[in-house]
Amino acid sequence: MDEYSRFVDWDKMDTTIQTQDSKELICTDFQEFKQLARQGCWAKNHSLRAKVYLKLIGNIPCRTVTPDANVYRDIVVKIIGKRNAGTLPLPEFVDNSLVPNYCLNAEGIGAVRKIICCIANQFPDISFCPALPSVVALLLHYSRDEAECFEMVCRILACNDPSKRLIDQTFLAFESSCMTFGDLVNKYCQAAHKLMVAVSEDVLEVYSDWQRWLFGELPLVYVARVFDVFLVEGYKVLYRIALALLKVFHKVRAGQPIESDNVQQDIRAFVRDIAKSVSPEKLLEKAFAIRLFSRKEIQLLHMANEKALQEKGITVKQKR
């Protein structure tokens, strides 16, 4: 059995992703690496992808004191004790977000909760991070044990390269990302934006779901392909994919009446069943076909939105 199979339920996994024939990936040039990631070069080989993730995440510049696998082994028993992993309450900062099981087996499903609780213990400064359960669940498919998964996620969270945004960890960052996504939809997907404005009472509420489409609703085969590129190219990839999802949703639904009176639920259901509409390759192709889309533009939008929110005094999520 493959060393990266411990948490995977192979009956649920795409059968084309075999565990054998673990090639090594020898590539140092960034541009070449970017192309390989976009082409899905390691998508067909489970253990190759695991090794690539380990390597890419190992290269993330981090804070000097970043918790590693040994920290996990030290703290997990103290934090979890004898409690049943499957019923562990999650920290408030994941905001009741979906905890996707993807293709995890029972041990993996429990391990996700254990890892999230240990991360909460080590990162007291995280105040809002709804993408975390999905990232932990995804990386667990490509981890030899819980401690290795914990270390990879900690490195993503502790990234201290100012030019490399990875995961939003405060409500302010998350909220300004949602506003920025709304700005991008308005500019790059005008037809879809018109539809959203027409059918929803609060268009910002619809756009505030954009990370949930990626980290929650997308099936594993898709989210892993997104993650391949995200680890190489960073945050702007997430915007591209979410815009592409909205474009596909609009195209598929253009002629039809909106099914429910809740377009937010419609899009979630559409993303869950994305395989009926578009393959992972086509989705990525669509995402990267959006022209004139620059990192600098995104940074400027994000900073402007963050500033606007701070001026309104919106920096923490209000208790419902």
Structure description:
- With 320 residues, the chain is mostly helical.
- The protein has 2 domains: 1-169, no CATH class; 171-312, Ypt/Rab-GAP domain of gyp1p, domain 3 (Cyclin A, domain 1).
- The protein is built from 15 helices and no strands.
- The chain has helices at 30-39, 46-58, 69-80, 106-122, 132-140, 146-157, 171-188, 190-199, 203-207, 210-217, 220-233, 236-253, 263-272, 280-289, 295-312.
- The chain is globular and about 50 Å long.
- The model has no long low-confidence stretch (mean pLDDT 90).
- Residues 41-257 form the Rab-GAP TBC domain.
- Pfam families: RabGAP-TBC.
- GO terms for molecular function: GTPase activator activity; small GTPase binding.
Features:
Cyclin A, domain 1, mainly alpha, 0% strand, Rab-GAP TBC domain-containing protein, Rab_GAP_TBC_domain, 57% helix, 320 residues, Rab-GAP_TBC_sf, small GTPase binding
* Overall pLDDT: 90
Strand tally, please?
0
Largest sheet: none
Succession of helices and strands: HHHHHHHHHHHHHHH
The rounded Rg comes to 19 Å
Shape: globular
Brief write-up:
By secondary structure, this protein is mainly α. It has helices at residues 30-39, 46-58, 69-80, 106-122, 132-140, 146-157, 171-188, 190-199, 203-207, 210-217, 220-233, 236-253, 263-272, 280-289, 295-312. It has two domains: 1-169, no CATH class; 171-312, Orthogonal Bundle (Cyclin A, domain 1).
